């Protein structure tokens, strides 16, 4: 009877501590935007020396200038097409949407242009073109291996670049974006009379409920020169910060400590209840 009671008490303690461990794990892998005690222990300030002064930065969100952001990114040693959310500190890896996550084979994401009269093909951090094209096939003789997004002109039959791909996603406020510049020439000029090249802005949105890998929507353009798209994918959702092995250590330590406390408390209670009662005569 007492043995069963001991087992029940131990099981109850473990059931109470298990959700606590799961909660700690979630809050330390970037799934929440709040700052917690353990998170502060595992994100100690980093001293970065700049030409002006030493800067204490505890996260990417603390970087106030482009120079500080660049220095911190170098310290984090992020791979191409990856980024750390400056608010939640979640690690986002977009390589699964690019050629880098497809054994080097190009991946093109289609988007209907609706009233624009053309359909678009978008690449993420890589060119979506499945083969190299001669410069005569590309409007303005662009290098097809560098094209990050394009459409095909129905009149000339040429491919029109709307920006060369880049591998550095950036947060603009709470929005994760990719910007492609240096596409084919627009039909407008700047204030100096020089032709402007086409460019593309892609906003990337986390969507955990999608059945497909990703979906791209055409939002619109300005003067047939600047284009905007939205991509939704579970690949945009944050995971654990890269290289944050300290968090895993703390979580493991908490689980072990919880198990020891639960078993020890149950064992002590069991011994106390097993002691023979004294009878006063």
UniProtKB/TrEMBL annotation:
Classification lineage: Eukaryota, Fungi, Dikarya, Ascomycota, Saccharomycotina
Residue stretches making up the MRH domain: 79-239
GO cellular component terms, semicolon-separated: endosome membrane; Golgi membrane; late endosome
Subcellular location: Golgi apparatus membrane
Species whose genome carries this gene: Candida tenuis (strain ATCC 10573 / BCRC 21748 / CBS 615 / JCM 9827 / NBRC 10315 / NRRL Y-1498 / VKM Y-70) (Yeast)
Keywords (A to Z) from UniProt: Disulfide bond, Glycoprotein, Membrane, Receptor, Signal, Transmembrane, Transmembrane helix, Transport
Principal location listed in the UniProt entry: Golgi
Protein name: Mannose 6-phosphate receptor domain-containing protein
Pfam families listed in its UniProt record: Man-6-P_recep
């Amino acid at each position: 009877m007492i043995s069963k009671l001991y087992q029940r008490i131990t099981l109850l303690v473990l059931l109470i501590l298990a959700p606590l461990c799961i909660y700690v794990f979630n809050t330390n892998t970037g799934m929440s935007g709040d700052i917690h005690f353990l998170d502060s222990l595992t994100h100690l300030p980093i001293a970065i020396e700049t030409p002006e002064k030493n800067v204490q930065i505890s996260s990417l969100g603390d970087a106030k200038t482009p120079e500080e952001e660049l220095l911190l990114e170098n310290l984090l040693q992020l791979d191409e097409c990856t980024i750390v959310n400056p608010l939640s500190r979640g690690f986002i890896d977009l390589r699964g949407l690019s050629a880098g996550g497809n054994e080097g084979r190009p991946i093109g994401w289609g988007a209907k242009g609706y009233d624009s009269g053309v359909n678009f093909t978008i690449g993420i951090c890589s060119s979506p073109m499945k083969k190299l094209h001669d410069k005569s096939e590309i409007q303005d003789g662009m290098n097809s291996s560098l094209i990050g997004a394009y459409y095909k002109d129905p009149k000339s039959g040429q491919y029109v670049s709307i920006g060369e791909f880049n591998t550095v996603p950036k947060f603009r406020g709470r929005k994760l974006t990719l910007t492609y510049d240096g596409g084919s020439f627009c039909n407008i000029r700047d204030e100096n009379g020089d032709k402007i090249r086409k460019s593309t802005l892609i906003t990337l949105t986390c969507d955990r409920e999608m059945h497909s890998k990703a979906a791209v929507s055409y939002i619109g353009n300005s003067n047939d020169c600047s284009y905007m798209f939205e991509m939704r994918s579970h690949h945009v959702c944050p995971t654990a910060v890269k290289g944050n092995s300290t968090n895993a250590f703390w979580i493991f330590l908490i689980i072990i400590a919880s198990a020891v406390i639960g078993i020890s408390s149950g064992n002590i209670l069991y011994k106390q209840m097993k002691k023979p009662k004294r009878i006063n005569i």
